[in-house]
Amino acid sequence: MNILALTDLRGQIQYTERLAEVCREAAVEAVVFSGNVVDGGARVAEWMAARSKGLRHDYAKPEVRDQEHADLQLYNRFLDILGALNLPCYIVPGQLDAPERLFLQASVNHEVVAPTLAQVHRSFAPLGRNFVVAGFGGRLTAEKREAVWAVEYPFWEAEFSFDFLQRLDQERILLFHTPPAGTDLDLHRGKHIGAQVVNTLIKAYHPKFVFCGEALDGQGKAMIGSSLVVNPGPLADGYYAVLDTREKQVYFGDLR
């Protein structure tokens, strides 16, 4: 089976126009997306500015409200494109896909009209007869939960999120936004941003394959235990990856 891996679109929707072509040429049978459909724009700017000055965030600002409207349009367009591929597609939110309710609302609505689309954040969906895909999106952090200005969760939420896997017999594929620590898959603008809790979950549940994102300079693959972990690189820069599950080979592509 060939799986197309995508992450970090960050609003650069033009790169999705060639996804159908990539799927045909690479004989893709499923698609995974590790979060950050949008870049957050005015919302993120307000959040960062208020935090740096110790001020209260103001979601009522017109530019922030306008950003929510623009983000919802982008979610809908991106999910329409994934649905039109007529392939099983599995998605989780990224740190920038806020407010959390907006991403969840858009994805649930599209699951109704596009049954091949599965939002697997804190959940799972089957892939063929042999695999099950489970995910946990958002930025994993030691700090408190944030669901309005960004999508961030404390480590402990992720630690308790996959207990249901113990009752499933299929081979596991895990989908994270946050990369694991200890490899260059988590390299982001000169810093390593991985979370050790991802490594812990990989070692606990022994997935066959793992996909992650967030780290814009972390394109690559690595083995953690017996699990092959892939960061396809940001789709915002045209990057993607195709995993051959039979041969355990990864091809990295560029849409530019």
What does this protein look like?
By secondary structure, the protein is an alpha/beta fold. The chain has one domain (2-254): Metallo-dependent phosphatases (Purple Acid Phosphatase, chain A, domain 2), CATH 3.60.21.10. It has six helices and 16 strands. It has helices at residues 19-25, 41-53, 62-84, 100-113, 155-159, 196-205; strands spanning 2-6, 30-33, 89-91, 117-119, 124-127, 131-136, 139-141, 152-154, 171-176, 187-188, 191-192, 209-211, 220-224, 227-231, 239-244, 249-254. Strands 4-3-2-1-15-16 form a six-stranded mixed β-sheet. Strands 5-6-9-12-14-13 form a six-stranded mixed β-sheet. A two-stranded parallel ribbon has the order 7-8. Helix 1 (19-25) links the parallel strand 1 (2-6) and strand 2. It is globular and about 50 Å long. It starts with a strand and ends with a strand. The model has no long low-confidence stretch (mean pLDDT 95).
CATH topology assignment:
Purple Acid Phosphatase, chain A, domain 2
For the largest sheet, list the strands in their spatial order. Answer: 4-3-2-1-15-16
| CATH class category | Alpha Beta
- In CATH, what is the homologous superfamily? Metallo-dependent phosphatases
- Which class best fits the helix and strand makeup? alpha/beta
Q: pLDDT average, as an integer?
A: 95
What is the rounded distance between the termini? 25 Å
Helical content stands at 25-40%
Tally of DSSP helical segments: 6
What is the domain total for the residues?
1
Strand content: 25-35%
